[in-house]
User: Fold this.
Amino acid sequence: MVTRDDNAVQTLGQDGGRPGGPAPGPSEAAAAAFQAGVWVLARPGESLRDFMAASLGFPASYIEGSVSTVFLDASPVDDIDAALVKPGCLVALSGAMPGLVGAVMRRRSPYASFRTAISHAGESADEAAGGEAAGGDRGPSGPEEACLVRLKLFNAVLRDMGRMVIERGAWLESAEAGQAAPTAELPGAPAASLIRLPA
Amino acid sequence: MDTIVRIDVGAQGGPKVRKEPVGSYAGYGGRALTSMMVAREVPPLCHPLGPENKLVIAPGLLSGTAAGQSGRLSVGCKSPLTGGIKEANAGGQAAQVMARLGYAAIVLEGAAPEGSCFLIYVNKDGIGVENAPQYKGLENYDLIEEIKKRYGEKVACISIGPAGEQRLAAASIACTDMEMHPTRHAGRGGVGAVMGAKGVKIIVMDDAGMPMRQPKDAEKFKAANKAWVEGLKKHPVTGSGLPAYGTNVLTNIINESGGFPTYNFKQGQFDGASKISGESYAAMMVKRGGQPTHGCHRGCVIQCSGIYNDADGKFLSKQPEYETVWAHGANCGIDDMDAIAMLDRLDDDIGLDTIEMGATVAVAMEAGVLKFGDAKGAIELIKEIGKGTPLGRIIGSGAAVTAKAFGLERAPVVKGQAMPAYDPRAIMGIGVTYATSPMGADHTAGYAIATNILKVGGYVDPLKPEGQIELSRNLQIATAAIDATGMCLFIAFAVLDQPETFQAMLDLLNAFYGLSMTNDDVVALGKAVLKAERDFNAAAGFTKEADRLPEYFKREAIAPHNVTFGIKDEDLDKVFNW
Ligand code: SF4
Assistant:
């Protein structure tokens, strides 16, 4: 079973803005994959902030200063500490966006009322860790557990963080049989087989 | 900029040019000037294509100065599309050049004799009008090539294509950009049809020999401009997001939110969105030797535009804007970047509003005229408009007319004008603005501007659903005021987040005109403009029932959030209670 590599998180550091200065951005093919969605490892029930920091390795200051637009399962998120990752969910991360509606989508936007009908309302860690769908009474997951979630990166976040996410492990759905990666057995994994994006 | 030029195109013996001082219109620019003049001088019940309507073309208060971002041009009239008051605005070089020539407005009045095709030439020595039948029927790109041969490449042009000559309700007015391409359009509301009705094909303006407009207080103005440009450059949206990807950076985000109208507003997400995103366009532009970061006029600091080349590396169109990519892309089920750029080019060439056209082609697709996703068919359909075929004339009349012609209920319009690129069920606050704006469904009517800084209408709790009504009102007031300055609305992001940048904008106005305007004055100006516009519409026969979305937005839920438009009519009626 694949587990999270917590050491990798430590080596990238948690602070100090963009790791290693301006990133060159991922290849064209990888950029297309990130916009359509790739699969990455996460810890069931972790908050979106923890997901970005621990599972993806984003520095804390980058999360606070640059990841200003966040979606969980198509809902704009205001509180990244209250919104929790669950197996198979879809997380999309973006920089600050233009236009009234761009501003509306921003976390804690003064215009959040414009999107009340679709905004994400936080949930309990139990629900997010799998709840009934994952076997009911499992309770919050331990740090050794992993699941798969779908991740989309857009615009500046794609440019700045895409390569790092690939290095840590990002998988694409593949139509080819026999490509099944060990991740296939993790909670949240899609029915299709997965192949790892080359670094 | 203290002169208004009036051209009576129907005067005996040929068009007559009259100059007059700005008089009671002093202090107004851009939308404030066009709307005040239309409200005062155009009979609300007149036919938009009749002699009583006027076409008012006005630069902003700061156009033609050294102030960054100040080159928007406003065009106002009674709209042939909505039947109400209209202000449509455009970038390009025209506003800067007109302002430097000293004109606060050019007003086209009267009824042109049948078959007229006037060219108006403006330079430092005056204004001439001639009948120029050789330009009749030309598309905008060919027309500008002819103009270049005659006047060189340093002039700025305002023109109509065949759609305007046919007086179609979706016709736009083109303004040339820095490369003298006719790519910047006052698109909305059929303003091109009114120019066509005045028999004017093109206005050519040459500001050679005219200096930049000078401020009353040069020192203060310089300091304010420095703070202004710094503010725009340091903000993440205006400083890097927009320059890198253009407005189409929104495609991925709005699609992700489930508010990206797809297949004529049937669903809120499009499978092909990432193929036509700003990120994908930017990569393609670099690969083909285009330019992803470019301004539409001199003095643009943000540079949200770009140059899109075809597969052979030749110029095809400007970088299509978000609204265009949505309208001709997702809304029509088309995920081909080249096809969308070609549709953008055709709209610019024939002189059509890209939002109205994308919405209309999607209605035609729903009617079975062609299939969703048929890019070639969409291109041919737009070409029909240029040719003036009966089908082309229907399509060129917009989404409401096309739905009627094909017997469909599902026309996504308010006051006859097509909704832009945000589904009002998923993003209900924008639906409030679509419903209540005097302009018809319009996203820019309530653009993001610092209501929290302006404190228009007091503090609004952003998490209360009722906030949508108050916010929409406040945004509409603030937008009307900003539209008067001639500032590109994309400044809104920097002004929204940085109070000092908002102050810099006020300082620019005050230093230039020797005024001492405050927040309250800005709010009062915005309210006055909106009130004049609302009063005009009321006198033109609009009742509160016009401030509604089509019923099917309340009945048909949109995936993935499965929401309908839930704002009550009585709440919509409160938007203009101030
Ligand atoms: S930001 Fe864009 S629309 Fe505004 S003036 Fe610059 S190029 Fe034109």
Observations:
- The pocket of iron/sulfur cluster is lined by residues B 69, 91, 295-297, 300, 302-305, 488, 490 (CB under 6 Å).
- Residues 44-165 of chain A form one domain.
